[in-house]
C-alpha cells in the first residue's frame, strides 16, 4: 500500500508509531510512504497511491488529485473541517476522514482570545495605543451598570452554534468565567451537561444571547446561515465570534449590523474569501476584530492520530471521523 504524506512543518513520522514499529515501511516491506509537496500536483510516479494525507492543500491541487489518483481508497485530512476535500470531486467510494479533535486545543484558545479581546475591548485599546492616546472612555463604558454585561463574561449568556468537538473543549472554560453556555447543533439534547437546542430552537435562543460563537462547518446547509434576519434577532448589545468557516456568514449583513450599531461587536478568524481581498469592507468595519484564519495553526499529535487510523484501517476496524457523503 502506498501512502502519500504532505510535506508539513511538523512531525508526521507515523510509521515509527505503528505496532510493528514501521517494519512494513522498511526497505523490502509491503508499504511505502512518499512525501509530496502540498502546493503542487501529485507527481506522476505517485498517482498509484491508495491513501492520501492532506492538510492545507489548495483546492486546485485537491481537484487535480481527485482526477489523477484513480486507485485512491482513503483520504485522511488533518483539518478539522473537511469542506475543501469534500468539494474536490473525489469518487464517492473514496473514504474521507477528518482531523476532528486535532485542533481542539488551539482553536479553543484562539476563540477564547477573540471573545475576551472583543468583550474587554482590546481592539479599542490597541487602536488608541497606535494614536498614543489614553482611551479612558473604555473604562467609563465598562463602569456603566446598564451595559456591564457587554464587558464581562460573568453572567453572559453565550450560545455556541456548532456544538461539536471544539465546543466541548471551549464550553467549560467559558463556564469557569461565569458564562451560561447553551449549544446549538443538528440534534437537540444535553451534551456533557450543557443544554443543546436543534436548529428549530435557534431563533428564540438568539433573542437571549449576549455572545454568539460560531463553530459551524461549511456545508450546503450552513451556507450564509447567519443572515440579516438572524442577526436582527440578537440584542444590540450582543457580540459575534466566528471561528468555524467564513461561508456560513452573510458578510454584507454583518457589515450592516456593525455599521448601524445593531450589533455591538464581532471577531472573525475565518472569512468567505481567504486571503481577505484588500478591497473587502470587513477591514474597516467598526468594532470588528479580524485574524487571518490562524485559530487551528497546525494539528497537534497528528503522527499518533494517523498511526492509530492506519492501524484501524489495516485491521478492518472503524476509522475515526469518517465524513458522511
Ligand atoms: N479557524 C480555524 O483555524 C479552524 C480550525 C479547526 C476547525 N475549524 C472549523 O470549526 C468547525 C468545527 O470543528 P469541530 O471539530 O468542532 O467539528 P464537529 O465536531 O464536527 O462539530 C460541528 C458541529 O456543528 C453542528 N452542526 C452541523 N451542521 C449544523 C447546522 N446546520 N445547524 C446547527 N449545528 C450544526 C454539528 O451538530 P451535530 O453534533 O448534531 O452533528 C456539530 O455539533 C470545523 O468544521 C471547521 O470548519 C476552524
TrEMBL record:
Molecular function via GO: NAD binding; oxidoreductase activity
InterPro entries linked: D-isomer_DH_NAD-bd (IPR006140), NAD(P)-bd_dom_sf (IPR036291)
Keyword Oxidoreductase attributed: yes
Keyword Oxidoreductase listed: yes
Alphabetized UniProt keyword annotations: NAD, Oxidoreductase
Record domain D-isomer specific 2-hydroxyacid dehydrogenase NAD-binding: where: 112-295
PANTHER family given in the database record: 2-HACID_DH_C DOMAIN-CONTAINING PROTEIN, D-ISOMER SPECIFIC 2-HYDROXYACID DEHYDROGENASE NAD-BINDING DOMAIN-CONTAINING PROTEIN
Protein name in the entry: Phosphoglycerate dehydrogenase
Organism (species): Promicromonospora soli
Species classification: Bacteria, Bacillati, Actinomycetota, Actinomycetes, Micrococcales
